[in-house]
Amino acid sequence: LEATELLRTVPVGGFLSRSRRTLLNRVSFTLERGEIVALVGESGSGKSTLARVLARLDTPDAGSLRLGGEDVLTLERGGASLAYRGRVQMVFQDPFASLNPVHTVAHHLERPLLRHGRATRAGLEDRVHALLESVGLTPAEQLAQRYPHELSGGQRQRVAVARALAVEPDVIIADEPTSMLDVSTRRGVLQLLRGLTRERGIGILFITHDLASARHMADRVLVLYAGSVVESGRTADVLAAPRHPYTRLLLSAVPDGADFLNTPLPVRPATGPMPVFGCPFAPRCPHADARCHDTLPPAHVHGAAHTVRCHLESSKGASDNAAVPQ
Ligand code: SF4
Ligand code: MG
């Protein structure tokens, strides 16, 4: 999956107003099969907007989205086709809302299996049981007959994962999949997701406001601030040696040595309006100077694709440091 310069804006202040708020500001990234990319950011940073765009529940104003080299936004103007949903699946934050209370677990899995031609009527029961076993819901025969209200939050989220797996997708977009689970079940669901990428080669975009889970899960990290990717790279680079002032602020909020699965990021909403020009982080940045307020910082790349969008990078010496055209 390859996103290039995704832009999404919404009008603010009534229909006569011309002003628009930017939800996604030219977001680019790639997600390969078998890798987990964490998208981290606070509430309101644009994480869920991006998830909705990737799931084709929302359409960007500009930019492109390619899946296996095919231009998705051109091919599928009307939203996600059956074929697209067969390749890109979502797991949502709220396992209570994402399952239908009047249907059994088995029913939730049978529908996608049949719709996407992943099982025949004759083989359906076996496929359902195999799916339940693959997400650790055993004994599968019993769990299949239960209704959502008879399951714990963690079990429900496993059903949601099984439902996503039913169509044998290449990509799963997991939007804060564990933020509504208690800590004891969280780890199990994260391990399940990680196992799936390794065993089945599924690419996962793991959306979270919890840096600790990102560190635990991801091969690469994208840090989103006010709709812009301000820093990205391998998890070890971004989270162990963060360069962007915003990433540093986030990391400093998680105490060293704390059980990081227990330490969600404090939400620090941006105060005041977003600047029209310049760095979106400038109003909160301790290092902001005049240029930060009037020029959008270019992306600087270090070593193995560690990208940082900050003016400080241009002053840090040019040897390992090249500005990329936007
Ligand atoms: Fe701070 Fe300026 Fe860098 Fe933005 S560009 S993060 S305001 S130093
Ligand atoms: Mg969200």
UniProtKB/TrEMBL annotation:
A biological process from GO: transmembrane transport
Keywords: ATP-binding, Nucleotide-binding, Transport
Source taxon at top rank: Bacteria
Keyword set includes ATP-binding: yes
GO molecular function, one term: ATP hydrolysis activity
Location of the ABC transporter domain: 7-251
Gene3D superfamilies the UniProt entry points to: P-loop containing nucleotide triphosphate hydrolases (3.40.50.300)
CDD domains: ABC_NikE_OppD_transporters (cd03257)
InterPro entries reported in the protein's UniProt record: AAA+_ATPase (IPR003593), ABC_transp_ATP-bind (IPR050319), ABC_transporter-like_ATP-bd (IPR003439), ABC_transporter-like_CS (IPR017871), Oligopep_ABC_C (IPR013563), P-loop_NTPase (IPR027417)
NCBIfam families associated with the record: oligo_HPY
Designated name of the protein: Oligopeptide/dipeptide ABC transporter, ATP-binding protein
Originating organism: Myxococcus xanthus (strain DK1622)
Lineage, uppermost ranks: Bacteria, Pseudomonadati, Myxococcota, Myxococcia, Myxococcales
